[in-house]
Write a structure and sequence with these properties.
The structure holds 2 protein chains of 2 kinds.
Chain A lengths: L6 E16 L4 E17 L3 E5 L6 H8 L7 E6 L2 E2 L5 H8 L2 E4 L13 H11 L5 H14 L16 H13 L5 E5 L7 H18 L2 E6 L2 H7 L2 E6 L2 E7 H6 L4 H9 L39 H4 L7 E4 L2 E3 L9
Parallel strand pairs in A: 3-8, 3-9, 6-7, 7-8
Antiparallel strand pairs in A: 1-2, 1-4, 4-5, 9-10, 10-12, 11-12
Chain B lengths: L6 E14 L2 E14 L3 E5 L6 H8 L7 E10 L2 E2 L5 H7 L4 E4 L13 H13 L3 H14 L5 H4 L9 H13 L5 E5 L7 H18 L2 E6 L2 H7 L2 E6 L2 E7 H6 L4 H9 L40 H5 L5 E4 L2 E3 L15 H4 L7
Parallel strand pairs in B: 3-8, 3-9, 6-7, 7-8
Antiparallel strand pairs in B: 1-2, 1-4, 4-5, 9-10, 10-12, 11-12
Helix pairs in contact in B: 3-4, 4-6
Classes of the chains: A alpha/beta, B alpha/beta.
Chain lengths: ~325, ~350
Amino acid sequence: MTQNGHVLLSVKDLVKYYPIHGGLLYRIVANVRAVDHVSFDIREGETFGLVGESGCGKTTTGRTILRLIEPTSGQVWFEGKDFSKLTGNELKKMRRDLQIIFQDPFGSLDPRLPVGAIIREGLDIHNIGSQSEREDRLHGIMKLVGLRPEYVSRYPHEFSGGQRQRIGIARALILNPKFVVADEPVSALDVSIQSQVLNLLNDLKRELKLTYLLIAHNLAVVKYISDRIGVMYLGKLVEIAPSDEIYARPLHPYTQALVAAIPEPNPTQRHKRPVLAGDLPSPVNPPPGCRFHTRCPIAKKEICAVTEPELREMTPGHTAACHAIGNWA
Amino acid sequence: MEIQNPSILQVKDLKTYFYTTDGTVPAVDGVTFHLDEGETLAIVGESGCGKSVTALSIMRLIAPPGQVISGEVVFQGLDLLKQPDNSMYMIRGSQISMIFQEPMTSLNPVFTIGDQISEALIIHQNLSKEQALKRTVDLLKQVKIPEAEKRVESFPHELSGGMRQRVMIAMALACAPSLLIADEATTALDVTIQAQILELMKELRENLGLSIMLITHDLGVVAEMADRVVVMYVGKIVEEADVYTLFESPKHPYTQALLSSIPTLRTSRDHRLNVIEGSVPNLYRALPPGCRFAPRCPAVFDRCRQEEPPLIPVGRGQTARCWLYDPPGNSALAHPAAASSEKTTT
């Protein structure tokens, strides 16, 4: 169903470098290559998961798409326009359609505002509807995410972590967006609360016909909720595939290591896992060629250390960036 | 009391309360368990269940307003709670070691890692500075830190998170302890690095015959590492079983709900995750009478709201704090062994 949906958001060659200044004249001496030429499409009604370990650039990708961080270069096509180039009123108008849910339900809510004001702020900023219509919408959205409307005048500290995450979700949805970035929406929550929020995200997606970009480090969470998954390593996308496929047949050696590293909650599945050697190299000075070649168990010296691999389609709908796997995949 | 003691550690009816200005918090409220020689025991639970406070109580590291108010912690025949401070000082770090979640904040930023590891050796084993440094290099090699000779000169900020956790483990192993307490030791690490550290811990456990008390909220880590599991909820143990039994046939409704609410790589997307309604009760307010899980329990019945259940034996080596397993007509008194540690407050 979603496999053939039309593309809602298209990221093309997105780049975000953070300059490092130094020396007497405070020149740019190096760049942190947080996101380095990343391209992918998200289809309408789809949940696209972005996974990777800390520092791989997944959060920066999400925020750069929404221009919470300005990209260094690249394009973000949304409804026929390059969102990354919009300015003024056009930008403000389109922002209503692209919203974000943050990781930290404690740090992302203003402690001095009552919950009602936090959630409805978007309506006020965009001047939508009359005061009473805004109130109705506020109550409606609170009910939808499972918050009691009586709580409007309470403050964030009076809520538990799970409820706070619901407040963050209500805030993101009040403008009726088409596209929502969920950045680690459950990683700060306790296990018993995580499933409440994951189910809520799934329900809302169905009811409101949302399209998600889900960013998370927990591959099991991403796999459960996503239709397709992109795996990032050191600022690069290394593999994109449907979520069942990426678990059943990971092609890129990094994805394979990532899948193997997850401890399964099943003691009969204990095994000596192939452990990935070494640490993540620095994104300031990433290895030449394939960025993974320094830790890769199947790297070929001649090519992997020299030429950077491009994402290639290995089987229909399944792309990977690796020189070493083409022969048998 | 115990003359023959196969357990390296026995915790009996441990109670640690925090006396805050907002009220008394019974963080650990009558916890009893034991850890056998060479065994890995996992203590699992969500935030606020008392698992870390249990560990800190064993180490006698509870600071005011917290206080261990009763119980026994028998380590190799010695009740640690009755030891004077200076002998505790000699036990900590030499016979019982602890590694913490945050490898950055647990290391001192202004000393090299070599200095920090040798410190324990100089204090506990009377080694000279040169001997200590030599042993430190060996330890760093043992935890597989590359270029150990050079790395002793490094400061913590020069190392990655995984390397810092290896340093913490080296430090914990410096004096060849018999018990290692790992409090969320891999939680802050990325999965591939977590896998490295877990493999390292398994290897050290085999080579050194360590007993490990593993404190975690991650059921995947439990399944990977533990021999036996204790599940805690709001300051109490709610279930205890060997790891295979616990994952195969959990008995307490909380354990059951916890296991069915986590998505795994095998969970189909069409499968709706089980949800534990509500949230963990606020410990500052008076707890509900009866079972602490009753307000969220899908299997709750009248008795649960009135009487607090004891740990009831439900199988070989498996106990659950749940009235579901009480034979009809029997009161708690029918299980004196399980009920003896209970002082039910209703």
